[in-house]
From TrEMBL:
One of its GO terms (molecular function) is ATP binding. Residues 2-235 form the ABC transporter domain. Part of the ABC transporter complex HmuTUV involved in hemin import. Responsible for energy coupling to the transport system. PANTHER family: HEMIN IMPORT ATP-BINDING PROTEIN HMUV (PTHR42794:SF1). Coiled coil: none annotated. Keywords: ATP-binding, Nucleotide-binding, Translocase, Transport. It comes from Billgrantia antri. This is ATP-binding cassette domain-containing protein. It comes from the Bacteria. The lineage of its organism: Bacteria, Pseudomonadati, Pseudomonadota, Gammaproteobacteria, Oceanospirillales.
Length: 252
């Protein structure tokens, strides 16, 4: 389990101290306006920045105490952009540095609709294709191919993974993430700008405002129209979908 214990940053970009954890089996959406601190919080959860106060622990052990190889087996991070120094073929790039078998790599490629791109160089992919390649890399890193089954209680952290995806790919990805969380006991945290994706697919939502988490809970509690209108300074209309999840649209 990944836990924040009174953890935050005292130097810019600051983050007010927070105690909570990412629950195995759950997808947590991190939402909030531009500059609210979502990526900053992800850098805290991932261990990319050491907390200025408190601690971040995976299975009760501070992230900084984990050996790099062990941590890589348990925690993967998907950044916003794919940066490449070399034009790797997609299949090789996805498998790079992972312990996944060739069969698991093929499964992961299929999970992200990447089979037809597997032999292509990754440097000239479209934005949405490159985004799916980055996610596939993280799934291989954690060995989340359907036949692997070695990923229990791993942690997957994603920064705006749907930002370049078309609506169909968004749906497939969010369904996949929720399924992975539930079936493989994965703890997933995912920065999202689309509140309706958070409403439909997340088990929990963390709402950030000006470097502070101001609400956390099930989507139906956190995605309250009046709170969202104030935090995002937007005119919104909120209603309920057939399954009871909130629906947030812009008012005319
Ligand atoms: N290295 C830094 N030094 C100082 N301030 C920073 C630094 N990096 C980010 N910030 C500031 O910290 C705040 C939070 O940034 P962060 O990237 O976490 O926001 P965000 O919620 O992810 O925003 P967005 O939705 O625009 O991606 C912003 O005001 C940003 O300008």
């Amino acid at each position: 389990m990944l836990s924040l214990i009174d953890a935050g940053f005292t130097e810019a970009p600051t983050l007010a101290p927070l105690s909570d954890h990412l629950e195995p089996g759950e997808l947590t959406a991190i939402v909030g306006p531009n500059g609210a601190g979502k990526s900053t919080l992800l850098s805290l959860l991932s261990g990319y920045r050491a907390p200025g106060r408190g601690s971040v622990c995976l299975d009760s052990k501070p992230l900084s105490s984990w050996a790099a190889v062990e941590l890589a087996r348990r925690r993967a991070v998907v950044a916003q952009k794919l940066t490449l120094g070399f034009d790797w073929p997609v299949r090789e790039l996805v498998a790079l540095g992972s312990e996944a078998s060739p069969e698991e790599v093929e499964e992961v490629l299929a999970m992200l609709d990447l089979e037809v791109l597997a032999g292509r160089g990754a440097q000239n992919l479209s934005g949405g294709e490159a985004q799916r390649v980055m996610i596939a890399r993280a799934l291989c890193q954690l060995r989340l191919g359907r036949t692997a089954g070695v990923s229990a209680n791993s942690v997957l952290l994603l920064d705006e993974p749907t930002s370049a995806l078309d609506i169909g790919q968004q749906q497939r990805l969010m369904r996949l993430l929720r399924q992975l969380a539930e079936r493989q006991r994965l703890a997933i945290a995912c920065v999202l700008h689309d509140l309706n994706l958070a409403a439909r697919y997340a088990h929990r939502v963390w709402l950030l405002e000006r470097g502070r988490r101001i609400a956390a809970g099930p989507p139906i509690e956190v995605l309250d129209g009046r709170i969202l209108a104030r935090v995002f300074k937007a005119k919104l209309v909120t209603s309920r979908q057939a399954d009871g999840s909130p629906l947030v649209v812009l008012a005319p």
